[in-house]
Amino acid sequence: MLEKTFDPKAAEPRHYAQWEASGLFAPRDRAATDGAADAYSIVIPPPNVTGSLHIGHALNNTLQDILARYHRMRGKAVLWLPGTDHAGIATQMVVERKLAAEGNVGRRDMGREAFIEKVWEWKAESGGNIVRQLRRLGASCDWSRERFTLDEGLNAAVRKVFVQLHKDGLIYRDKRLVNWDPHFQTAISDLEVEQKEMEGAYWHFAYPLADGVTYEHPVAFDEDGKATEWETRGYIVVATTRPETMLGDTGVAVHPDDERYAGLVGKSVILPITGRRIPIVADDYADPTKGSGAVKITPAHDFNDFGVGKRAGLAALNIMDSQARITAADTPDVPAEYEGMDRFEARKAIVARAEEDGWLKAVEKTKHVVPHGDRSGVVIEPWLTDQWYVDAKTLAQPAIKAVEQGDTTFEPASYSKIYFEWLRNIEPWCISRQLWWGHQIPAWYGPDGEIFVAETEDDARAAAREHYGAETALTRDEDVLDTWFSSALWPFSTMGWPEKTEDLERFYPTSDLVTAADIIFFWVARMMMMGLHFMDEVPFRRVIINGLVRDEKGQKMAKSKGNVIDPLTIIDRLGADPLRFTMAILSGTRDIKLSEQRIEGYRNFGTKLWNAARFAQMNEAARVEGFDPATVEQTINRWIRGELVKAERQVADAIEGGRFDDAAGALYRFIWNVFCDWYLELAKPVFGGADEAAKAETRAMTAWTLDQTIKLLHPVMPFITEELWEQLGGEGLVMGAEWPAFPDAFVDADAETEIGWLVDLVTEVRALRGEMNVPPSAKPPLTIVAPDGQTAARVERHRDLLLTLARVSAVQTADAAPAGAVTFVSGSTTAALALADLIDLAAERARLEKAVADFESDIGHVNKKLGNPNFVARAAPEVVDEQREKLAAAEAGKAKMLAALKRLESL
Hints:
Blueprint: H1 8-22, E1 39-43, H2 55-73, E2 77-81, E3 83-84, H3 88-101, H4 107-110, H5 112-126, H6 129-137, E4 147-148, H7 152-167, E5 171-181, E6 186-188, E7 193-208, E8 215-221, E9 227-233, E10 235-240, E11 251-254, E12 268-270, E13 277-282, E14 294-297, H8 303-312, H9 343-357, E15 360-373, E16 381-390, H10 392-404, E17 409-411, H11 416-424, E18 429-430, E19 432-433, E20 443-445, E21 451-453, H12 457-468, E22 475-476, E23 480-481, H13 483-487, H14 490-493, H15 502-507, E24 510-516, H16 520-535, E25 540-546, E26 548-551, H17 567-574, H18 576-585, E27 591-594, H19 596-618, H20 635-656, H21 660-687, H22 692-713, H23 718-727, H24 749-771, E28 782-785, H25 789-797, H26 799-805, E29 811-814, E30 821-826, E31 829-834, H27 841-866, H28 869-874, H29 877-905
């Protein structure tokens, strides 16, 4: 007999160990008849080796595991390939902090080789946490194939790709602007930049016009915006939030259609402090409606300015070093007093100088967004430096075409817009990082700066001998590659490329990729580019984008807000299955509103199935050898058989389509509403009756239906289903069982119609009792009004069930509704429930009228908010959505109460 409750703490580690030991996580052996359709593969988005399981991982890996388990039960050879990412900057930071806490010297004092050795030591000790946590979630990955983006095989693949792209002219070295982290002294990707709103200011500076030039500047305007007064100026005003960058200004831009400055284009200004002569240029980047309409241009320290500088042929002068201190290395006209000054100290000094010399015209306080390093927390500096780049524009063209022609699809399809938008406007990809932990760039420099790119040092030396005609000392590039570079090769490098392996032949391209929208361009697009270039085939057939998990109010989770839901804490408290089911059933929206209460609710769903299995055991419903569900005769058994078929079709279709919310919803409705609430209730009289043949058939049907239900639910809730399968005497593991296959003939239209009639009628009675506030203990008589022959026969067949399920004292037929009864319609059946003697009509009318008034008050209050344009424009989207949901609920509640009032009037 099953225990009263399922104990996930005891069952989960035991079943996971059984699964691993069974070998079922690995793809089944290849059959002689296997074709491409018999394989299903998916590569895990590799979590950072430094990471711990967070709620986003729980969502993403639950969805992947549903796919893997489902296709495995379908008989396919399933490869779910796991691994972790070396996470360059994150891992280096963790180890540096650990070394500092232990009193060790810094990495630069330690030296590269010794430091890298320490990182590998840390990985051996602590790098497996995330993998262990994925096991707790139930992830059925093939751990025997686990990869690491820095393992030797992937290292070889990365070197080969770099060298080949360099030979193809698609990797090159260039001096361009990058996001520079002055703390870590490395370039970082856009994904590693966190935008923070900060208090700041616009400082308005007057740059004097050169050569005594003046112009007439409008200072007063009429109601149509036309200038009415002018003043003569010998300067042009620019505004900046970063005064320190003026030391690197090489131009001032105005819009080509801005009449105020039309006569100044081609003229020059004298840059204060430095005395540098810089031109005034025309460029569409300047916005005539913002500030003065004139913009200072610092090509070496601003991404937009870099573009203006390129178009206008302006010099790009670096005025900062790698630690964001002022330097005159490129700009000898920068006064010595600023040399070595921190950028923020320089800001203060320049503003003070401007005020003292009189060219500070105004200070405008503002809030603006400032980029910060997500790891270091310091302000990111756009910095001009030599880096390695990929010609992403060239590689992007096949990747665009592949999605356009449907070789790879997105689910939902709307996400392809993000993909196309980025690829069609792609910039060169900076792939070098000034770190030690990562794939060291396979490039060596000769004494004259000549670059030799090769897979090995021996190959580089051979190339150098050929170039110089003698053995020559070479120095290896110290930089490492962007983590996303090795991740871009993930689908094929993990399967053994560049070798021609069986895994590549069998499982590439992969079937699905499940990932988040925020890395469509950082990862998905880059995998498409690399897969097409090196494999001549897309890396995956479909990309399923999962949503972002937020708190119950729709706010982003953050430790600072105290609203983070830790999946490991949830698993400790409730088990993995409720968390997994919640992730699946909520996965259909871009922003998933999650609360612990919802997870607890789906724990109750698992409990409902557990109790149903206990009920079946108590009523001696056990597997019968040779039982054939096609032969059942009882109406309820023919009905549940058809309902099970429909549920299987819905679940399978939804999982195949990547609609995990629909799959979970179909499972919930069948298990809770159909099997537990109706079938088992309908079976109770049979179990307690005297018809032994009906009893035996219903017991066998209950056990069979329970078995099939366990199989259907297994991909979503693997632990409780495996426990039930074991406890109920299932053969082997349910994980290795075949997915149910039912013929269409199992759906019995007559049984469906008959039981549907009964269910609908009972549901209407229950709803009416609730609306009219009938006491639970009260049992009014039910009258079926003027039934036809078929309905009258149904009443006779199901009288006992109606008495029990509808909680009525009698079920009778009559030509008209009796006095004091409320009439209602269920399908084609008219019925009446005698309520006049069971409720206080005056008190009930007063209750309903008060409820209507309360709803009207709520509706008026919410409508007032939503009718306020300022509220709708300024409130957070989730707050506006919450108000709209309140309005819809209040309007539905009011309609329900008004309907009840109308019924009351008939008594």
